[in-house]
Amino acid sequence: MYMSHMEDLERNRQMKAIQRMLLSVVVFGAMVCVLGVIAWVSLSGVNTDISLLLPPAPTLIQ
Fold first, then answer.
1. Which domain holds residue 16?
2. Looking at the whole model, is its pTM more than 0.70?
3. Does residue 59 sit within a domain?
């Protein structure tokens, strides 16, 4: 009876360790995805034409 209980505790400890590891992998993957999206958006903004962001140039009236 005592060994069975100890085996259950050991199995639960191992399962919790596996769950923590998987959670860490998922959180790390989510952070990498978020940083990738931020980098992709910022780098895709470099290729846009800057004249779209500027107001029109003033014209001379004579």
1. 12-42
2. no
3. no
